[in-house]
Amino acid sequence: LSIHKVYDAISLLKAHHHHREAIAVAKARLLPEDPVLRDLYTSCAAVLEKDGHYSMAAKCYLGAASPYDAAKVLAKKGDLTSLKTASDLALIVGEKDLSVSFSVRSAQEMLSAKNWVGAQEVLQHQERLLGQRLFFGTSELLYKCLKEKYVIDRKS
Question: Which residues of the chain have pLDDT under 50?
């Protein structure tokens, strides 16, 4: 670095899997629109994703200006918070089909936990999912009706 071989230093750090350090050097010494910085973020995200660090991989994809990939990797985590975040992110960047897919998965998770209100809230931002909202509402009413008549075991 002291002899101004920034690209060589970044390549060396990246080759030895020191992605954070390479990104730090690139951000300090290069212009924000330099393609090397985007490449670093993308390669770092791929390594983190492969190792199962989905949240950090999503941050790297966002740093690389790839919100589609960030949403997809967040959804791989599979927990409810990550699915909702992935759905919101996809909706913000205009990936409506992807957002719908994540919203349905979130609502199904909530439905299996009998969180009827939460399932409706997740789906309310998706105009195309009016049928699912109707189905979930009907399921809730049917469940409560059968539960009152002791057809469904109260512990289930």
Answer: none
* CB-based contact 61:69 (threshold 8 Å): yes
8 A C-beta contact, residue 73 and residue 54: yes
pLDDT tens-digit map of 36-66: 999 999 999 999 999 999 999 999 999 999 9
* CB < 8 Å & 24+ apart, contacts of 3-6: 6/30
Nearest to 82 by CA among 62, 105, 64: 105
* 12 vs 113: CA distance, rounded Å: 49
Angstrom distance (rounded) from CA 102 to CA 84:
7
Q: Which residues contact 33 (CB under 8 A, 6 or more apart)?
A: none
Residue that the structure tokens 């924000």 belong to: 32
**Alpha-carbon gap, residue 53 to 46, rounded angstroms:** 10
Tally of residues, the chain: 156
Q: Cα(59)–Cα(42) distance, rounded to whole angstroms?
A: 10
